[in-house]
Structure formats: C-alpha cells, structure tokens
C-alpha cells in the first residue's frame, strides 16, 4: 500500500471512530434527560399523593367532629349522635356530694315533696364513669323533661303517679326496680346488676351505676342508641366566637328560692360561668372534687297543684309561663311555651319580651323548675 492510500484509510477510520463517539455521547445525554424527567415525575406524583393524603386526613378529622345538641360545642361525631341519658340524682344533704354529675351537660332541678329538690343530669358522654349517683326515684314531670331531649330515663324507684308514664310505649327508661306494689311490673327493668350499692352511706342514698352497666341495660332493653330521625335539639345556640349578653340587667348572684337546700349561683367573670352553691357550701362532684359550674342558668316557672295529702306535686310541664335566662352576668325575663301544643313531648321554647326565641351561649345549662306561687322568692343581684 502506498503512502497516499494508507493516509486515506487512516482518515476514514478516524472519521468512523469520531462518529461512533458522537452517537454514544448523544445516547448518554438522552438517557440522562429521560431519567431526570422520570425522577421529576415521580417526585411530583409523590408530592401530589402526600398532598391528597394530607387533605383527606384533614377532611376526615373535620368530619369526625360535630356539634353537641346539649351544649352547641364541637365534640366527637360518635358521641354527638348518641341519644343522651337522663339520670335522677339524689339531692338530700346526706347524699352529697353526687358522683359524676359534673359530666352532665344539662341539669334539671325541681321540687319534690317536703320542699326538697331532686336533680336530673342529662349526659351525651359518660365514657369512663365508674360511679354515677346516688340514683334516686322518679317523679312524673321529670319524664316529660327527659323526653324533650329524646333521652333515655334512668331511675331507681318511682312515685305511683309516674307508673303509667314509665310504662307507656314511647318511654325508654332504665329502672332499678322490677315491680311496684299495687301497680305491677315495670318496663325498663334490665336486671339487678345494672345498679350497685356502696357501704359508705345508708340506704336509700347509696345506689350507683356506671358506663358499663348503663350500656348493658341499653343493649338488653333494645333501645335505639341514636337520636330519633329529624330531632334537631332542644336549644338554639350562638355561633363559634359569638357571646350573648342580655339587656334585662346584671345578675351576679341569683337564687331560685328553694326552701330546703337554699341554692344559689355566683357569676365568675374571669371564667365566664356561674358557680353552684347549696346547703351553705360549694356543690362539688365526688369523682373530681370540682365545683359545679354552668354557662347558662334558666328559671322555668310552672303551674302546679298537689296530687294528694302526702305532698306529691303535680307540676304542669305543658301550659307555659314565665322564664328567666341568665348568662355572662346578665339576664332577661321572658316566657316559655311548648313548641307544639299538640305534642306533649315537644321542647319548651324560651322567648324574650319581644317574642323572639332565646339564643344560649355555648356551654352547659342548669334549669331550675319553680312553682309559680313561689316566683316571688327569686332573688337577682
């Protein structure tokens, strides 16, 4: 091969090598760009998935919370739809302090025979309570109040005048007694293991129940555990962040005028609620030692008469009357009336002097039922 021909071969080889190298470089660049694109897409998908998961978690958390129909406040959804239980509490001095009553979101206080009062605590959440009571006997007007909340009614014993209401088909009650002398068998008895007695107090002031026992009774009796369809609650509450004050005057100390326990409420301006006192001392919960305190106090004045010479009261829960609403150190006087006069179980609606339904501040409420002939005993300072 001559020198010129060899040079041509060498040049051709060099060009072939350079072309191959360029092609390889081009392939490597394309591969790198593809990998980068795929990585970016993966990262974007991961970010989107994380964002979706976070949004779903936030939505789930929001949906797991809803309003208590007893307080207007946000609570666990599983509790908010539970039908409440209304438990009769002994309020004689020898039965104090009551256990578990602090967890009641609404408390009714009404007179019974002899000028004593008895309490009914309404609970939408009683989880973890091992001691609730002491539990005492029923009076017929308490059944009416419990039904306004679609509540299951818990009692140990009853006046004879309550027997027919307790055995009515539309009354869901949990009874500590199976029979009543001269009346017969009672609906609502679920077994002797639903209540228990303690040895720290004499009978009949030592009967208690618990979360576990109440749930057992509800299961055995087959009661619906959720609110009746269409039930929207008893009270109208202010919105989040709103505070209701009233134009009837100041109310720092209020007394319903009961003659035996002589209770009163004192407004705590720092915390925004009323502290409860009776028998000359603070009223506390035995389980916690805390003084009972409430955002809203209602005095509901009712007509009444005696059933008999034994002093059993026939309190009119249907006809309406005067009403006093206290909150945030202020009050207003108005009226109350049944929402549906043809439905005895419909709620009592509270109205101001202009006929507008009262809006309550969010929080717990204490209702004092006051006989109309004793309305003049009310003290507002």
Mean pLDDT: 87
What is the third-level CATH name, the topology? YerB-like fold
CATH class: Alpha Beta
**Number of discrete helical segments:** 5
- CATH-defined architecture: 3-Layer(bba) Sandwich
Distance between the termini: 128 Å
**Model regions low in confidence, pLDDT < 50 over at least 5 residues:** 1-37, 55-64
Could you give me the name of the CATH homologous superfamily? YerB-like
Q: Widest sheet: strand order? A: 8-7-3-5-4-24-18-21-22-23
How many domain units? 1
The SSE order reads: HEEHEEEEHEHEEEEEHEEEEEEEEEEEEE
The gyration radius over C-alpha positions equals 34 Å
Shape: globular
Number of strands: 25
Q: SS-based structural class?
A: alpha+beta
* Proportion in β-strands: 25-35%
Topology:
Layout: H1 3-63, E1 65-67, E2 74-76, H2 77-80, E3 85-89, E4 106-111, E5 117-123, E6 132-133, H3 140-147, E7 152-155, H4 163-166, E8 173-175, E9 179-180, E10 184-185, E11 196-197, E12 207-209, H5 211-221, E13 253-255, E14 264-268, E15 273-278, E16 281-282, E17 293-294, E18 296-302, E19 304-306, E20 313-315, E21 321-327, E22 330-338, E23 348-351, E24 365-371, E25 379-380
Structure report:
There is one protein chain. With 381 residues, the protein is an alpha+beta fold. It has one domain (74-380): YerB-like (YerB-like fold), CATH 3.50.90.10. Helix content is 23%, strand content 27%. The protein contains 5 helices and 25 strands. It has helices spanning 3-63, 77-80, 140-147, 163-166, 211-221; strands at 65-67, 74-76, 85-89, 106-111, 117-123, 132-133, 152-155, 173-175, 179-180, 184-185, 196-197, 207-209, 253-255, 264-268, 273-278, 281-282, 293-294, 296-302, 304-306, 313-315, 321-327, 330-338, 348-351, 365-371, 379-380. The strands form 6 sheets. Strands 8-7-3-5-4-24-18-21-22-23 form a 10-stranded mixed sheet, with helices on both faces. Strands 13, 14, 15, 16, 17 and 25 form a 6-stranded antiparallel sheet that branches. β19 and β20 (313-315) form a beta hairpin. The model is unreliable at 1-37 and 55-64 (pLDDT under 50).
């Amino acid at each position: 091969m001559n020198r010129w021909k060899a040079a041509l071969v060498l040049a051709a080889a060099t060009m072939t090598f350079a072309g191959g190298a360029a092609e390889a470089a081009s392939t490597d660049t394309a591969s790198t760009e593809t990998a980068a694109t795929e990585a970016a897409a993966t990262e974007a998908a991961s970010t989107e998935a994380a964002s979706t998961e976070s949004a779903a978690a936030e939505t789930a958390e929001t949906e797991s919370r809803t309003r208590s129909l007893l307080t207007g406040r946000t609570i666990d959804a599983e509790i908010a739809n539970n039908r409440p239980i209304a438990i009769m509490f002994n309020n004689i001095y020898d039965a104090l302090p009551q256990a578990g009553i602090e967890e009641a979101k609404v408390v009714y206080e009404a007179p019974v025979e002899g000028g004593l009062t008895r309490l009914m605590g309404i609970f939408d959440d009683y989880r973890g309570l091992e001691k609730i009571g002491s539990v005492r006997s029923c009076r017929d007007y308490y059944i009416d109040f419990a039904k306004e909340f679609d509540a299951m009614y818990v009692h140990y014993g009853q006046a004879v005048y309550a027997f027919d209401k307790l055995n009515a088909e539309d009354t869901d009650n949990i009874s500590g007694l199976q029979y009543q002398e001269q009346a017969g068998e009672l609906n609502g008895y679920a077994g002797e293991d639903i209540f228990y007695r303690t040895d720290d107090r004499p009978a009949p002031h030592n009967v208690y129940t618990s979360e576990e026992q109440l749930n057992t009774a509800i299961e055995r009796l087959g009661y619906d555990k959720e609110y009746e369809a269409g039930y929207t609650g008893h009270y109208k509450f202010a919105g989040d962040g709103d505070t209701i004050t009233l134009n009837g005057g100041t109310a720092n100390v209020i007394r319903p005028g009961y003659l035996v326990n002589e209770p009163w409420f004192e407004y705590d301006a720092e915390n925004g609620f009323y502290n409860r006192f009776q028998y000359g001392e603070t009223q506390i919960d035995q389980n916690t030692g805390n003084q009972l305190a409430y955002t809203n106090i209602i005095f509901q004045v009712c007509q009444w008469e005696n059933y008999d010479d034994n002093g059993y009261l026939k309190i009119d829960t249907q006809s309406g009357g005067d009403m006093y609403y206290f909150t945030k150190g202020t009050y207003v006087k108005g009226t109350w009336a049944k929402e549906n006069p043809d439905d005895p179980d419909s709620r009592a609606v509270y109205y101001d002097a202009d006929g507008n339904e009262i809006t309550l501040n969010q929080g717990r409420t204490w209702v004092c039922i006051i006989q109309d002939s004793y309305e003049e005993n009310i003290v507002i300072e």
